Amino acid sequence: QFHTRFDEEMQHGTIPDAVRATVANSGPSVLIAMLATSLGFIAMFFAPIPMIADFGVTCVIGVVCCYLSALIIVPVFGIITKYRVKEKKGALDDVEACELDWKGCETEHFHKKGSRGSLTEHYNHALGSIALKIAKNPVPVLLIFGLVALVGFQMDTCVPVNADQDTFVPSDMPALLDMEKVTRTMGSTTSIPVMVTGDDVLSADTLQWIDGFATYELERNDKITGASSIVTLIKQYNNGVIPDTEAGVRDVLSTIPDETKSRYLNGNMEAVILFSTVDMEMDTARSMIENLVKEAAWYPAPPGTTVRVTGSTEMFAALMDDITNSKTTMVIAGFVLILGFLLLVYRKFNAVTPLIPIVMIVGWNGAIMYLLGLDYTPMTATLGSMTIGVASEYTILIMERCEEELARGLGIYEAIQTAVQKIGMAITVSGMTTVFGFSALTLSAFNIISNFGIVTVITVGFSLVGAILVMPAVLAVMYRFSHPHAVNAAEIPAA
């Protein structure tokens, strides 16, 4: 953005003038966009998963450093190198270009016959033409993209959540292959510990409950293949029966080696029931954990005793719930933070304008994830807040430039066309560098990283589409109400 604006200002003045104009005009608008982007990333702080919050911190630090670097380096570099504008030997000189003060309007044609300017000029001119057509016909564009977003929100609810750590690593990883071999040879190594706590877990009532609950689960749950606890050891060392008295229990426990009983017992206040299970998909394990919790509540423990399902299986099942809840929380938090910031900055209703395309982009993300068969993981759960952060920069910059052109007296349509045409290449280059950077992640052998790279590339692509195609339509509709004085001057004169 700074480079594009500096180059634009250099076409009309000296280096000192260009530096002042660039910092004065682009500095505040890019600052607002940067702060909005940071707020989108700050929404990741609301995630219950520490790695997501840490990623948000890293992103905020990165965008702040990029802003400060660009604000300082671009003007300084221009001064040191005595920057000169590249001569445009094939400059466009049609009517639209003249109206936007493009170089070549005041002179005769000097490009070769059939030449219509450089590739950059072609692209900028195409963006301006598209933006003008969209601004004049905003409703169909908003309806089409809005409908796709609405369908995407429905599809998003069908995107599975994946917390299975085995799917996060390469399928040919030696450690994973060894574990699968052990599982095939010895059976499943998965177990679910159930923690039993109370004033005295070695009381006769509690031991009878532990034995009864373990037996109940073995009979009722076909996913459970075995159950072991301190009761199992007591029976083993007491001819298959549980002593009726506390003294009898302690006598039996005294015959059991400490290293053996410590696996199931911690003093006389904590005991563990260890359920062995078949090898299951994480969704199935999650469902089984939920049923186990309900059955533990239905099969009441003695008064003063609490039962809690624990272990890695329960942890990853809880992680799935956290991912499901946090991705929605982060999206809502991102919108609220950015909306509050924009209302504070602009102090008018149309501050909501940059967020409208972003709502659609979030819906498109859900649709593409469903169609590509991707899962939500601890990394891809950040997709919503990343979308809000990245896309808000592009949409805010376009709105800021459009406001600048309106302040110069242009009509609505001409201001929208000028805004997109002037900074379209800049945000495209910015977006494409981000795309190519994250594309490197798609080459990772780790599925969790490669999928994150895929969805990030798609997100940035959608952000560009939202800024270049949807934002002109939104601006055209919003400005009809917020800038009625510009409606009469909206039509660009015909050639």
UniProtKB/TrEMBL annotation:
<feature type="transmembrane region" description="Helical">
    <location>
        <begin position="30"/>
        <end position="49"/>
    </location>
</feature>
<feature type="transmembrane region" description="Helical">
    <location>
        <begin position="55"/>
        <end position="80"/>
    </location>
</feature>
<dbReference type="InterPro" id="IPR000731">
    <property type="entry name" value="SSD"/>
</dbReference>
<feature type="transmembrane region" description="Helical">
    <location>
        <begin position="328"/>
        <end position="346"/>
    </location>
</feature>
<keyword id="KW-0812">Transmembrane</keyword>
<protein>
    <submittedName>
        <fullName>RND family transporter</fullName>
    </submittedName>
</protein>
<feature type="transmembrane region" description="Helical">
    <location>
        <begin position="452"/>
        <end position="479"/>
    </location>
</feature>
<dbReference type="InterPro" id="IPR050545">
    <property type="entry name" value="Mycobact_MmpL"/>
</dbReference>
<dbReference type="GO" id="GO:0005886">
    <property type="term" value="C:plasma membrane"/>
</dbReference>
<dbReference type="InterPro" id="IPR004869">
    <property type="entry name" value="MMPL_dom"/>
</dbReference>
<feature type="domain" description="SSD">
    <location>
        <begin position="331"/>
        <end position="477"/>
    </location>
</feature>
<feature type="transmembrane region" description="Helical">
    <location>
        <begin position="423"/>
        <end position="446"/>
    </location>
</feature>
<keyword id="KW-1003">Cell membrane</keyword>
<keyword id="KW-1133">Transmembrane helix</keyword>
<keyword id="KW-0472">Membrane</keyword>
<feature type="transmembrane region" description="Helical">
    <location>
        <begin position="352"/>
        <end position="372"/>
    </location>
</feature>
<dbReference type="Pfam" id="PF03176">
    <property type="entry name" value="MMPL"/>
</dbReference>
